[in-house]
Every structure is written in structure tokens, then in C-alpha cells.
Amino acid sequence: MNLFWNLFKRFFMGMLYGSFLYVVTGLYFNSSSYNISDRLIFLFASGLIGLLSVIFKSERIGIVWEFVIHGALSYMIVVALNLVITPYFDFWNPNIFTTFTVEFIVIYVIICSSSIAMFHRSTREINDEITKRKQKMNQKNN
């Protein structure tokens, strides 16, 4: 049951990131042409990308390889999403392929950087709290 909730949380977090990106990109591009089923497919794909974050739990692979694998699989999901939602999407056109790939990498780096920053911040706060508790225990013992 714990595994189910862990996977559910990851799926939900993926949906949150996807929703945020949908809102941000909707400010710059006309997203009114998408119907409700397209939006649900987008949320589902975002959830799948969130599920891919399970790879970061592995200690056998280095963090760089984890990001490379997660990024490649996420890229495949996003390409599939675009091909499903927009069947006329000419992905193999060199200009579209290059632009799409560069935009994906930039967005992926921004999201990963913010995730790393949040993780680093929370880790630092936890370590500071542990240090304070140790100091209090040492003061009580002295």
C-alpha cells in the first residue's frame, strides 16, 4: 500500500508540474484550440513523467545518468503527446525537430534546477535542525 501512495504522489506531482507548464505556456500561445480530451491527455502524460521520477530513488545509477534517463524518457512521452494531440505535427522536419528539442531541453533544465534547489534547501534545513538538536542535547549533558 505504501508503494501505491508513493507512486500516486509522484503521478500527482507530475500533474502539478504539467498543469503549471500548461498555464504558463497558455499565456504565450493560443491554447484555446485544445479540447477537454486533449487537456486530459496532457495531464495524464504529465503524471507519467512524474512517475518516471522513481528513477531518482535508485542508488545504483549516478545522478547525472538519472537525469539523462529521466530526460530521454520524458522527451519520448512529450513527443508522443504532441503526435497524439496534433496529428499534423511534422516532428521530423529538421527545423521543427531542432526547435522542439531545444525548447524541451531548456524547460527540462529549468524544472530540474528548481527541483534540485528545493531539495538542497530542504536538506539544508533538515541538517540545520539536526545540528541544533545535537547542540541542545550536548548542553543538557554538560
Automatic annotation (TrEMBL):
The portions of this protein that span the membrane are 12-30, 36-56, 63-85, 97-119
Question: Is Chaperone included in the keywords of this UniProt record?
Answer: no
Q: Does the keyword Cell inner membrane apply?
A: no
- Write the record's keywords in alphabetical order, separated by commas: Membrane, Transmembrane, Transmembrane helix
Q: What protein does this entry describe?
A: DUF3021 domain-containing protein
Species: Apilactobacillus kunkeei
What does UniProt list as this organism's lineage? Bacteria, Bacillati, Bacillota, Bacilli, Lactobacillales
